Protein: TetR/AcrR family transcriptional regulator
Organism: Streptomyces zaomyceticus
Amino acid sequence: MYSALMSTSERLIEATRELLWERGYVGTSPRAVQQAAGAGQGSMYHHFAGKPDLALAAIRRTSEEMGAAAEAVLGGEGTAYARIEAYLLRERDVLRGCPVGRLTMDPEVIADPVLRAPVDEALGRLRARLAEVVREGLDSGELSASLDADEIAATVVSTVQGGYVLARATGSRAPFDSAVRGLLSLLTPRTAAG
Amino acid sequence: MYSALMSTSERLIEATRELLWERGYVGTSPRAVQQAAGAGQGSMYHHFAGKPDLALAAIRRTSEEMGAAAEAVLGGEGTAYARIEAYLLRERDVLRGCPVGRLTMDPEVIADPVLRAPVDEALGRLRARLAEVVREGLDSGELSASLDADEIAATVVSTVQGGYVLARATGSRAPFDSAVRGLLSLLTPRTAAG
DNA sequence: GTCTATAGAACGATAGAC
DNA sequence: GTCTATCGTTCTATAGAC
């Protein structure tokens, strides 16, 4: 149930975002969305053509938010390494996982090009933005010249996404934190062996 | 539909494994399992108490299989680095993702301690086994002494699990391969800067 | 814009004949 | 062990009154 100060269509989108995050597309029913939004059957189908249409609105917003949150950290001050570190260490509700990455495990999202598009774009942009920062680190000599920017960007995003998997499996954020620390230790410039 | 040479209960388990992999627990109905297994309603409820019971049998088997597949590579010949590399590069149906890791995104699996247990065990054992190999690499001087075995193990597993997420988002295995190559480039012993 | 009523199908499970 | 019949609920959506 959301604030009465929000329009019905807003409440429907926000309720859908929450449910998609927690239960995925397959596990989210229009009925559950309506109840969470405090809206009737008729309202939902007045504002949206159906479940896929409502889900699309919700996914688009979540994807945009993810991009903004990443940019807030990656576009900040500091060295390339510091910004990558800030991205990896930024506050997260680890056990809830990533609201965007989560959708990639949903067969009906992946099967529908329209629903998959915002997911693909959000993760693609994140990788591209991280690759830029890595390139800065390569140019400045902060990171080993033997590294490939696109590859490292993919590794960074994968570590985060996979960290969620490990955390949810154990029911604790510990493995997520371990994975991140492990990656940071690998990225740390070593001027000499050992 | 599975071979008539398999018992009904076997066919039910195998069909469930396939459907859990593709559609998850929430998205898999007893009805769909029965059709895929070529078994009737009555047969399924004769052999299994219900959907959770059948899913448990399927998840246990998948988790065991994952452990065996990992051990086949990690317990093989070669240096620590070579075995980690072999694990990361081993043949995978990348776009299908990990049949175990996938379940961590399922709210009903995570909410049920009995269903979550085999998932937790499989990924926990994998991390522990990888940590052993990393320790060998640290002892032999193959890997930088500044690294922590448990952390690196978590990073390795996370990269794989997260790589699936990126691959499924784009519809291509390319980002998975990038993430793995990136991790390998970070793990590669560098005796001097650059 | 929102409501209630209704629809046909699928959900997960049980009962009881064979 | 397997079958068909049935159950009450939920799914996603449409219709039509207000």
Summary: The mean pLDDT of chain A is 96. Residues 8, 39-43, 46-47 of chain A lie near DNA strand C (CB under 10 Å from a C1').
